[in-house]
Amino acid sequence: MSGRVAGKVALVTGAGTGIGRAACVRLAQEGATVVASSRTLAHAQETAAEVERASGAAALAVALDVGDRETVDRVVDEVAGRHGRIDIVVANAGFTLAHAPSLMDTTDEEWERVFRVNVTGMFSTCRAALRHMPAGGAIVTIGSINSFVAWENDGAYTASKGAVLQFTRALALDVVARGIRVNTVCPGVIDTPLTREFLDRAEDPEALAAEYGAVAPMNRMGTPEEIANCILFLASDEASFVTGTSLIADGGTVIRP
User: Fold this and answer.
1) What CATH number should be reported for the domain holding residue 165?
2) How large is the average pLDDT for residues 25-42?
3) Model confidence over 205-251: pLDDT tens digits?
4) Which of 180, 140, 141 is CA-nearest to residue 162?
5) I want to staple 184 with a disulfide (CB 3.0 to 4.6 A). Which of 40, 64, 141, 167 is the partner?
6) Is there a contact between 129 and 76 (Cβ–Cβ < 8 Å)?
């Protein structure tokens, strides 16, 4: 099979919908053997079915809550045992607090839950996968424009994505001697099912959608497929001299004064 990641084994977390699902499809289209993981097994299975429809290749669906360290170790070891190694990790699992509390109104439990998934879960996943990753491997973490800018009433998520950026840089240095690269993709506002859920709950969904789109100078939301293309580049050998960096895919949002 020809392809930009042909013959590679790729583990994607948070693969049940949105960016994670699109990444699975795109990697499979370029020749990777994909393992789609999600906290909800049914969502991972839906992604695996979509991968097969789009690429003709079978994908493995697994249940994985990245916030549970013991489960992460077990599942990653099982994946590596089945495929012999893990060449690519897309550490995508993460969430924000949908009710958008200010930092003063954020509870201890909410703060700790965001960091347990967005930061500690990413650390646990990468640490476990690195036990099985050969030279030439690549890790792509998913940050956010919140890695660089802050928004009102989104403090826990913003702090967590700032940590993801620095985690990526630190990990890149720690594994560079092994011939492994680590980079992050930082999306802007993306038209995902989660975004659509926010829109559906709004009093005026069309007005809110226009507001979301207007955040970027391109005057639209991005698509999961556009972010998946960025992930594919960083995971492929085309990015062989790229490590410890961030690819901001936000339609120009962070350059706007």
Assistant:
1) 3.40.50.720
2) 98
3) 899 999 999 999 999 999 999 999 999 999 999 999 999 999 999 99
4) 141
5) 141
6) yes
Q: CA-CA distances (angstroms) from residue 68 to 35, 125, 142, 185, 201?
A: 18, 10, 19, 24, 30
Give the separation between CA 228 and CA 192, rounded to whole angstroms.
Answer: 12
Distance CA 97, CA 181 (A): 31
Between CA 224 and CA 216 the distance in angstroms is: 16
- This prediction's pTM: 0.96
Range of the domain at 74: 9-187+222-247
Active site residue 157: yes
Tell me which of 157, 188, 224, 251 is the catalytic residue.
157
**Number of structural domains in the chain:** 1
Kindly write down the DSSP assignment for every residue of 32-63, as one continuous string.
Answer: PEEEEEESSHHHHHHHHHHHHHHHS---EEEE
Look at the block and give the residue holding tokens 């924000």: 96
The order of strands in the sheet holding 181-187 is 60-63, 33-38, 9-12, 88-91, 138-142, 181-187, 246-249
